[in-house]
Amino acid sequence: MSFSVEALTLSLGGRQVLRDLSFAVAPGERVVLLGVNGSGKTTLLKALDGLIAPDAGRISYGGEALTARRLDQAVFRRRFRGEVALLFQNVDAMLFNPTVADELAFGPRQLGLAGVETRVARWARQFEVEPLLDRPPFELSGGEKKRVALAALMTTEPRVLLLDEPTASLDPAGGARLVDFLDGLRGVTVIASTHNLTVAEELGARAILLAPGRPGALFDGPTATLVNDERLLVESGLAHRHVHQHGGAGHEHFHVHDAE
User: Fold this and answer.
1) Domain residues of the chain, as ranges?
2) Whole-prediction pTM value?
3) CATH H-level superfamily of 3-256
4) Alpha-carbon distance values, 7 to 19, 23, 33, 248 (Å)
5) What is the pLDDT of residues 194-232, one digit of tens each?
6) Could you tell me whether strands 30-34 and 15-25 are parallel, antiparallel, or unpaired per DSSP bridges?
C-alpha cells in the first residue's frame, strides 16, 4: 500500500479543512481528487507529502506512520523524499535555482543520486524544456514553469507523484501531452487534484470527492460514475442547476464548473 489515511482531521488558520477522512491508495494506482476551491485538496496533498501534520488521525506510507518524528530520521526521510514528489499548484514556490538546468539537477544532487547529467538530459527532452536549460526560471511563462517543475520532479524518478492542479497554466496541447505522459508511466502511483471535470477521467480511474465543511469523502469510486452523477456534483458545488423562464415555461440546465 502506498498511502493509508485513517480518520484524518486537519485545520489551517483555525478552520477545519478536513474531517474524519479515510482512504487507501495502492501502488501504481491513479487517483483524482475532486472538489471546489476550499474543499481541502491542496491541504490533503501537502499532508501526504509530510509538509502538514494532522490534528487527529493517521497517515501511513508503505506501512509506516508518516510523522514529523519519523521524517526527522535521516534514513526514512531520504527514502521518502526520493520516492514521493509533490507538484505545487503555484510552481513559483518550487523554482529557486539560477537556471533551469540547475532546477532539474537539484533533486538528484540533494539525494546523492548517480548520473545527474543523464537524468537532466532525459527529462528535459521528455518535457520539451531543452531550449530553456540556460534560462532563469523566473523569466519563463506559466506553462514553461509548469513543464520545468514536472521535469525537476521526475529527475529523481519517484514512485509516487502528488500533483496539485497539474493541467492548470498549460494550453490544451500541453495538457494533453501531460495526460499522455501519465498514461505511459508504469508502476508509479499518481494522486492528482483538479476541479475540472473535463480532465478528471484522464487523470485517474478512481475519484475521491471532497466538499467544504463535509466530513470524510462524498464519493470514492470510479471517476466515470462520479462525473455522470448530477446529484453529487451539485451537492459538492462542482456543478449547479440553472433555472430560467423561456416562453412562459421553466427550464433547467445543468452546468459544470470547468474553469481553472
Assistant:
1) 3-256
2) 0.90
3) P-loop containing nucleotide triphosphate hydrolases (3.40.50.300)
4) 7, 9, 17, 50
5) 988 889 999 999 999 999 989 999 999 999 999 999 989
6) unpaired
